[in-house]
Design brief:
- The chain is of the alpha+beta class and 376 residues long.
- It has 2 domains: 3-242; 245-376, no CATH class.
- Helix content is 15%, strand content 24%.
- It contains 7 helices and 21 strands.
- The strands form 4 sheets. It has an 8-stranded mixed beta sheet with strand order 5-4-3-2-6-7-12-8, with helices on both faces. Strands 17-16-19-20-18 form a 5-stranded antiparallel beta sheet, with no helix packed on it.
- Mean pLDDT is 84; it is low at 1-20, 80-88 and 199-206.
């Protein structure tokens, strides 16, 4: 694609978005309004989507003066795999540089945007892309979920501030969770209610029935959209929502809160049921991070097979997995080691029995937290 062709594409891209997997502008605006003071005088990099049709580039270029930005850089990956970065079959990787409105019309005109060509493919791990990363103060984008570990590690290694989109379960990755426990990464100010919705393109280009979760794909105004559940903003930019106190109203009772069989902690199955007067360690759902206030709670561990912070004190290698009717599944309890376990038989689902008939069942992963306000 020549420079003139790229310029023409900038004019038409917003009218004919039929070839990209992209984050909706409304979701970007909803989150970014919580950080307006964070961007003054900063260089922003959007390095994981095609800037010619990216709503990240659109947001920052149209709000450049309002945010007081110093420079905006957005990169385009030369797509050779339709599952990476964007849905565009770019013939050459480019990056755009925008340094503000020059003709006072408050619009980022194409002739105000510097178009540069990568020698390579524009991959965020390439030397060329890293040189752009070094120039940036804040990185804002929707990186590929499949490369999320590597992407976040790079941002931390280069000591960059960031606001990026990822899957909720990514916080449990061994490379990422320690940053949450150390308060170096947290969730953003807003949630994607009902899941994050992405524009996929024309129904003629993408068959919803062939997508990984076709039930979450829908067509509106002859455009195909895909709703992805469990999506969160990951950031190290502070925001006011992060310091809102979680109101607690439940009182601890040993009858209401069971102790785990393998962790020195109590089970709290819902965030709203966190007791206001319990001083010890509590196991809470991962979704607790949506309400986490570092002034109110400390994160002390995560129940994972690898073990983070709080170690399991019991193993179930000698147990056998059985169905609700007691029929063995053929699996041993070894596969549940590290999961939070409660004594007894659950109301539904498989469970585990030892040679003496003692039963225990596994729960979903839990974060282990303490109420720091009660530690004095």
């Amino acid at each position: 694609m020549t420079r003139n062709e790229t310029t023409r594409h900038l004019h038409s891209a917003k009218k004919a978005k039929n070839d990209e997997f992209y984050t909706q502008l409304s979701d970007i605006e909803k989150e970014l309004k919580n950080y307006k003071r964070s961007f003054k005088g900063k260089v922003v990099l959007c390095n994981c989507d095609d800037p010619r049709v990216s709503n990240f580039f659109h947001y920052f270029s149209y709000n450049f003066e309002k945010l007081g930005l110093k420079k905006l850089i957005s990169t385009c990956y030369k797509n050779q795999d339709r599952d990476l970065f964007s849905r565009n079959d770019s013939e050459q990787a480019i990056y755009l540089i925008y340094e503000g409105d020059k003709n006072n019309n408050n619009v980022p005109d194409p002739d105000e945007i510097g178009i540069q060509f990568f020698e390579g493919d524009g991959d965020f791990r390439s030397d060329e892309a890293i040189e752009l990363l070094k120039q940036a103060d804040i990185v804002v984008t929707n990186p590929p979920f499949s490369l999320f570990r590597e992407y976040v590690t790079q941002l931390v290694d280069y000591k960059k501030q960031f606001l990026i989109i990822g899957n909720l379960n990514a916080m449990k990755y061994g490379e990422i969770y320690p940053y949450f426990q150390a308060n170096k990464i947290w969730f953003g100010a807003t949630m994607f209610n009902g899941g994050a919705t992405y524009f996929m393109g024309s129904p003629d280009l993408y068959d919803p029935k062939k997508m990984s979760n076709p039930k979450n794909a829908y067509i509106k105004d002859n455009k195909l959209y895909w709703r992805v559940n469990g999506v969160r903003w990951f950031t190290n930019l502070d925001h006011n929502k992060r310091h809102e106190e979680l109101v607690l109203y439940k009182t601890y009772s040993s009858n209401d809160y069971l102790n785990y069989d393998n962790y020195d902690a109590i089970e709290v199955s819902k965030v709203v049921e966190i007791p206001k007067d319990y001083k010890g360690v509590m196991g809470v759902p991962i979704s607790f991070m949506d309400k986490y206030n570092p002034d109110q709670f400390d994160i002390v561990g995560l129940s994972m097979k690898a073990g983070f912070g709080l170690e399991s004190n019991k193993f179930y290698d000698s147990y056998k997995e059985v169905k609700q009717d007691g029929t063995p599944t053929g699996s041993s309890g070894k596969k549940t080691n590290g999961n939070p376990m409660l004594v007894g038989k659950p109301k539904k689902g498989n469970y585990y029995l030892d040679e003496y008939g003692n039963a225990a069942y596994s729960l979903f992963d839990r974060l282990f937290v303490v109420n720091k306000m009660l530690q004095h």
